[in-house]
Structures are given as C-alpha cells and as structure tokens.
Amino acid sequence: MKIYTNGKIHTMDEKLSVFQAFAVQDGKIADLGESRFLASRYSEAEICDLGGRTVIPGLIDSHAHTYMAADSEAERELFIPLSVRELLDDLKRRVREVPPGEWVVYLNTYPLRLDELRFPTLAELDAAAPENPVSVDGFYAAQLNTAALTLMDYSKLPSGGRAVKNSSGKLTGTLLNSYPYLCGYYPGSRAGKDAYVKTMRCYNRYGITTAIQGFSSFDEIRATQELYDKGTQTLRLRHTIKLFGEDRESLGEHIKKAAPTDPAFSRVCFIKDTIDGGFLTGTAYMEYPYRNIDSVFSITDCGDGFKGNYVTKSEQLAESIRLANKLGLQYCAHCVGSLAAKKLIEAYEFVAKAEDMSLRRHALLHADFLDYDMLSRAKKLGLTVLFQPAWHYMDAQSLPRVMLNAEIERFMPYADILVSGVNAAAGSDHMVKLDADKSVNPYNPFIGLYNMVSRRGRDGKAYGADKAIDRESALLYYTRHAASVCFDEGLIGTLEPEKRADFTVLDRDYFSCAEHEIKDILPVMTVLDGKEVYKNM
Ligand SMILES: [Zn+2]
C-alpha cells in the first residue's frame, strides 16, 4: 500500500469532494481522508508527500488519433508551416535536398490555419518546386502542383472526391475529399511499437491516462496487445473501427478475433462513419453557405451557395446505427458542420422509432456547431457529444472570414451543452506531431480547459465569452463525464474507493490559479493503475 499525503485531492465525485490524502493498493484507490488519519490507520504503508499540490483524476481524451500521431514523427520531426510564406521557403529548401520526382508533402496543413488564410496557389507551388510533386494536404482538401497533377488518375478518386477547375475549365490544383487516394503516393512510414510507446508517454506527461481513438486498425489493436503483454502500455485505449463497405458482413467476427485480453486497458467500443469534411478546408457540411470559398479554400467552381461536402447519406447512416445495435457496439459519425450534425440526429431519430437505443450511448463526433434544439434532441436520444476545445482555441479567430454569424454563434457552445444536460466529453482530435502545444491539434488538455473557462483563442482574445463554463464543469468533461462515454464510470474518471488509481499531480492549483495560467499547468506526476508513468517532482 502507498499513501499520498498532504495534498488537495479533487475526487470529481458527485459531491466534488476534496480530501487531504488517499491510499492506493493493488492499482486501486483504497481509502481517502486526512493525512494524519490515513498514516495512523495504515502505519506500514509507504508514504508520498505531495507537498500541498493539487491532484485530479487521470485525464481522458475522448477523441485522439494516437497511432497516426506516432506514425507522423516516427522518422523525423514533422514541419507544420504557419504561413504560405513559411511553407514556400521550406519547399524551396526541400527540393534542393531531394531528387527530382520525389514527393514533398505537408500533412495536416489547412488554409484557415495559415496566416494568409488561403492555400498556396498552383503557380506559387510550381515556381518553388518545378520538378517535384507537391501536396499541401488538409485532409479533406489538398493543393497540388503541376508535377503532382500529371500523376493523378482521376477515375480512382474515392466517392465525393474531385478536382476543382477554374472558370476556363483548367485545373486549379485543389483536390477535394481525395486523401485515401493521395496518401497512396506519399512517402509514408509505419511507426511500429516503439513510436506508440513514445506517444503514450507524451500523453502521460500531460496527465492523460485514457484516450478514445478516432480510428484504430486491427493491426494497431494487436500491436497494443503486445505492448500490454510487455508492460509498456501506459495509456488505456478505447477503439473505434471505421466502417468500410466490404467489412460490414464479417465485422463482428473481426472484432471478436482482435479482442484484447484486458478490457480495462484496451477494448473496441465504437464503429464509425464519416458524414462530411472539416471547416478548415470549407468541406464541413453547413446549414448556411460559406463566405469567400474561392479566395480562402480555392474552391472556385461551386458559386456562392456552397455549404460543404456531404458524403454519407441518411440511409447508410441508419443502416450503420442498426448494425451497431445488432453487434452490441456503440456508433458515432464524424459530423463537423451544423447540417451534418442535423442529418445524424435525424438518422438516430429514424432508427429510434423501431429500436430502443436510449442506453447505448451512441455519439455525435465533433458536432462543432450546435444549437439548443439539436442539444435537446441529442439528450432525448441518450446521445453523447464528443467535442474538441482545441478547435475553438485555434480557429475561433478565423471563422468570420468564412462563416456567417448565425454559424459562429453556435460554435462550441460549452454553456449550452452544460445547461442542456446532454452527455458530453472533451478531447483533442490530436492527429500529427508529438509536441503537446504545436501538434495538430494540440493535445495539451490544459489548453482545452483554459479555452472552456475563458473562451480565449491562441491570439489571447475571448470569442463568445457568454459560452464559457466554470472550472469544475470543464474538468468533468475530461474526467467523470468522459469516463461514461465508453461505460467506464465504474472504473475511472473519479478518485473514489474501488476505482482504478489513475491520477495526475499538478504543478499549480487548477482551481485557484489565475485564469491565464491554466494553459501553462504541467503535471509533475502521472499514475496509471497505481503505477507511476511520469514523474518530475
Ligand atoms: Zn478525428
């Protein structure tokens, strides 16, 4: 047994109880109380003096792409340009280093996140790289140069994928919804298990002990099992399997075959579809049309009424929801835009007429633009909203350039989510790069917490300040509420007797520090299942 004394232990239980000390045995919380009382009750126990520091439950990132992030820096540090100028300078340097014909790719680089608020043009890329194929890839849209365009076989683009043309019928170099095809050309690397271990350790450093994966392959699930067997899995994982047409028949069998041995550490929970793209590339499916789609997103052939991409139709969604019900799994769909979220809610309502699914905890994934009507319908259906504050932190400042106020006003409405009482949890949507603050998207949960209580963006300004929430409520979306997303409320999410001992010790008090300091909080120790997985105290 080990006793952690002389701290401020925020249990985040129903009463938001705070204790001075707690005892851990066999990986579980055994007792909580006053330091003196626990020390005398368990006189044999090892003692760890917390020095007055604040302890909170291990943080749960409810949407992360941990494996993809591990892949992204398996070989070298990934460069994410912050402006078109920076990108072109880097490109000129890169083409001097690589042989002609070799691809130069900028992953997760979005027009709305570049200072100039646009993609580089075909002409700019051609001037910088005349002999190397180049892709500036924003996942749901990419900007290529001429050397890349000449390699394309447009008949092979996935459904919803297409090349944009200008008014005289010439290709502009912008490809929409073509990532699955394009990535076949990219010089890629499969990270392997060492990179997974490294990435999990990065999460531990920021207090994260559980991450719900946005997408896991069966190979990745099996690789994680090997790490578990070796004792090097330092993150609880909940998996999401993406639905591809051909798998549907045998999906249940595949999931059973890949089932990890310890469901507390690794388990398949969700199956998933994708309904639309993302608002950083003008492809999220919105109720109101985008503004400036030609100048910002290089979408020059859709006219003024363009509302984004809608790639998975309602009948397909309903079929997937029924499949999840049949297999006893949870269902979620990527729906970033307001209209995509509405389509998904409608599909749930349609299926709910014939099948009771109020206790299944299906989810709306992203749902970045929500109004009160959508939230109350989601609550009635027993759905969970999985939102990512990092998007508000990064992008609230750029939205006026591309959206009407009617959409901006319902961007990440934390206060409305809270008042509606809908199940919800916060996450990062971390995809690439391992630096917690410079990654896309930043997975540092203290940035997310800071944004939820202040509504401040990366420029320091507050956007929609009336939608801010209090510190306790914000933290619940990373702890107790996040645990319930995958039915883990009996296991993690609070520090109560019999729960697993997942917790993190902070360098300053989240509950009383100055608001602007929340984003600078750094854990000094993180414990998973009773074992230290990070320590710097
Ligand atoms: Zn995602």
Cα radius of gyration in angstroms: 23 Å
Helical/strand content category: alpha/beta
CATH architecture of the largest domain: Alpha-Beta Barrel
Count structural domains: 3
CATH classification class of the largest domain: Alpha Beta
CATH superfamily of the largest domain: Metal-dependent hydrolases
Short description:
The protein is of the alpha/beta class and 537 residues long.
What distinguishing features does this structure have?
537 residues, Diaminopimelate Epimerase, Chain A, domain 1, six-stranded mixed sheet, 20 helices, TIM Barrel, alpha/beta
Layout of SSEs?
Layout (H helix, E strand, L loop, with lengths): L1 E4 L2 E3 L7 E2 L1 E5 L2 E6 L1 H7 L4 E4 L4 E4 L1 E6 L1 H7 L11 H14 L6 E3 L15 H7 L5 E4 L3 E4 L1 H4 L12 E4 L5 E6 L2 H4 L10 H13 L2 E6 L4 H13 L5 E7 L8 H7 L8 E9 L18 H5 L16 H14 L2 E6 L2 H15 L10 E4 L5 H9 L3 E4 L1 H7 L3 H4 L2 H4 L5 H7 L2 E4 L18 H10 L16 H6 L3 H6 L17 E4 L16 E6 L2 E5 L2
Parallel strand pairs: 1-6, 2-7, 8-14, 9-10, 14-15, 15-16, 16-17, 17-18, 18-19, 19-20
Antiparallel strand pairs: 1-4, 2-3, 4-5, 7-21, 10-11, 11-13, 12-13, 21-22, 22-23
Helix pairs in contact: 2-7, 11-12, 14-18
The structure holds zinc ion (ZN).
Zinc ion binds next to loops.
